[in-house]
Write a structure and sequence with these properties.
Layout (H helix, E strand, L loop, with lengths): L2 H14 L5 E5 L7 H8 L3 E6 L10 H10 L4 E3 L14 E5 L2 H12 L3
Parallel strand pairs: 1-2, 1-4, 2-3
Helix pairs in contact: 1-2
Length: 113
């Protein structure tokens, strides 16, 4: 949920999966270092999906989109991810940016369909 932890995540992923790129599902709550988190994750992301974290704290989705637009970041916006079918299947996924965003991945991939 901050730039430093996002950088550690990216470094760990690079150490484990140096030859792989990911789709990063990124949702951040307001008041966090949106630009810093985005920059830290760029080395591991071939593509981003920006979403709203399922949080009572709200979402920094528009700020994330605005920053990504100015920095030539490849992204898709899916404000509310309801199903695995909403997500691409071509790359491995990382859900991050907020604990509440990680919980989206947990809910989706632990659901009994």
């Amino acid at each position: 949920h901050n730039a430093e932890s996002a950088a550690v995540l990216a470094q760990s992923i690079r150490g484990l999966y140096d030859d792989r790129t990911f789709t990063v599902v990124l949702g951040i709550v307001p008041g966090k270092d949106v630009r810093g988190i985005l920059h830290a994750l760029r080395p591991v992301a071939a593509h981003f999906i920006f979403t709203n974290p399922e949080s009572p704290k709200g979402s920094a989705l528009q700020e994330l989109v605005d920053i990504a637009d100015t920095e030539n970041v490849e992204f898709t916006v899916i404000p509310d991810i309801r199903s695995i079918r909403d997500l691409p299947t071509a790359r491995s996924l990382i859900f991050t940016g907020s604990f509440f965003t990680a919980l989206i991945g947990e809910r989706l991939f632990n659901a009994q369909d």
